[in-house]
Amino acid sequence: MRSKNDKIDAQGLSRMGLEQQVPIWKPLSKNLYALRLLTRQHQRLQELRTQSTNQQHALEHSTFDSSFIDKQLTKLVSIYEAQLVALETAIKELIEQDPILKPRMERLVAIKGLALLLVAVLVAETNGFEGFTNQRHLVSYAGYDVVENQSGNHSGKTRISKKGNSRLRRILHMPAFNAIRFNEPTCKALYERVYERTHIKMKAYVAVQKRLLLMAYALWRHGVEYDSLYLANRASKDKKIVPTGGTTQDQVAESELSHL
Fold first, then answer.
1. Helix H or strand E encompassing 255
2. Which of 151, 150, 123, 149 is CA-nearest to residue 138?
3. Is there a contact between 159 and 173 (Cβ–Cβ < 8 Å)?
4. Hey, how many other C-beta atoms are within 10 angstroms of the C-beta on 132?
């Protein structure tokens, strides 16, 4: 269809619904909707505060300064900080009052690097991980899916798509650093493995971001407590010695350890 109008769009949506087994969309619950409003407002105020502090920094190092503008910016920053504190309090109160959200979020906060605000963003932006039947769907929704650029003799860079919900990637940026800083076992091992192979720190940190997202998804979906040594224990149990052409080789569940 080269043209675009309401009739053609309606026909396309109808054909998609008939030809594909599209799952029924479920709206956000009242508390999840309120949580998403709070977390998104928190992000907007953080961006405004950063903008004002950057203006202050530029004004301090400019040729001519203005005390009047500096006072205004200082007042704005203090207002933003007070509102951010109020929003964080409202988010905590909302979670405390929900008997379903509270125990599930407490399981996710047990992961080193994941704070309550981050978990709130993950849950609010994914509708409580509703609608994701497997990890691949969640990875694609967050924009962590790998995109290749190769044709014939041309071999371009392999990178993440960055398509999808950018708020998830934004909120997972700093927790990835903290997970490595506080020596979270699974993330630390993944970081060292990726860095040893690529020698690119940021690529290793992005792999850790993806791992944190999938760990949160697994805990939320299965309703289990966090075990920091789960993957290590799983690998030791799955390790087998298989004869191959007169030799032996160790077969470990590397796919589960490396693709996350």
1. helix 254-258
2. 123
3. no
4. 17
Distances (CA, A) of 51 to 47, 77, 230: 6, 9, 42
For 153, residues 6+ apart whose C-beta sits below 8 A from its C-beta are none
Kind of pairing, strands 154-155 and 150-151? antiparallel
Domain that holds residue 149: 126-227
Higher pLDDT among residues 244 and 232, named by residue: 232
Residue 106 lies in a domain: no
Q: Are residues 40 and 88 in the same domain?
A: yes
The string of pLDDT tens digits covering residues 14-56 is 998 889 887 787 888 899 999 999 999 999 999 999 999 999 9
In this structure, are 72 and 147 located in the same domain? no
Do the beta carbons of residue 37 and residue 44 sit within 8 Å?
no
Q: Is residue 1 part of a domain?
A: no
82, 98, 114 - which closes a domain: 98
Same domain, 94 and 131: no
Total domains present in the chain: 2
Predicted TM-score of the model (pTM): 0.80
Over residues 233-239, the mean pLDDT reads: 55
What are the structure tokens assigned to 27, written together? Answer: 């709206």
